[in-house]
Amino acid sequence: MTSPTPPAEPPHADRTYRSVAALVCGSLLLLLIAWMGGDAMIRGEGRVPWLAAAALLLVVPLVVAFTLRPAVFANDERIRVRNPFRTIQLPWTEVADVRASYSSELLAQDGTKYQLWAIPVSLRARKRAARTAARAAHDDPYGRTSVSADVRDSAGRTASADQTVRDLRDIAERAGDTTPEGADRGSVRWAYEVIAPAVGGGSCWLVGAGWRWAEADRDGNVERAGNPGPGNGPFQVSGRCAGQMPAAVARSRLIPASSSAPRARAAGSPAASATGTTTSR
Length: 281
Hints:
Oligomer: single chain
Domain Low molecular weight protein antigen 6 PH: 69-138
Transmembrane segments: 20-38, 50-68
Strand order of the largest sheet: 1-2-3-4-8
Mean pLDDT: 76
Keywords: Membrane, Transmembrane, Transmembrane helix
Largest sheet: 5 strands, antiparallel
Region (Disordered): 134-165, 256-281
InterPro entries: CFP-6_PH (IPR019692)
């Protein structure tokens, strides 16, 4: 009589790491963008609603990619890093180190380095944690913490990014160097669900904006051609050059031809004869 096969141990749930500040800022930015874009689409005239829609299609995926999308998921078998434009999944056996200096990084066994966008490093938080640890180390026995306190209880004296990196290292140590059967291999996937809308929205906005600028330039040329000014007359200048005529040329064209008569009369006056000045006609 054979004994029944024991049920497989259920996999542990993923531990999720995100930046709370990024989530808050991303939500506020999306509300602001929706308000401004919706107003332009409802009240705009001509091509303005279409340009606003294209701008929303460009900006919204980028805001989501850099604020709401970044996350790190870790369990006893693998780590999954979701960055703005890529998703990296590696088993712990292919991870060499997780570290945080000026930014949080995941170093693979083959030397490839991946940034952890969901775990931002704050130098100010590190300085604050260092000051807290220094004060706690010099407290007297009647204070909050004494010199003989348990130094392993350092969660309150460590910056959040450094504490997260320490937790990931603990998970990697518990996973060990053996890969479970059926575990997924390492993979890197581009986030086309973010890249495609952003590229499409940017292309549509550039095309629409180019048409609008071309129409505005054409309307300006027609208006300048229909109005009298320095660019019209015997020596008419059309197009953009009409607005770029030198000031000296414009003044000379505005002076009437009869303005030379006073100079001629002044040259034939007795004062001019006394000085021996003659006028040639």
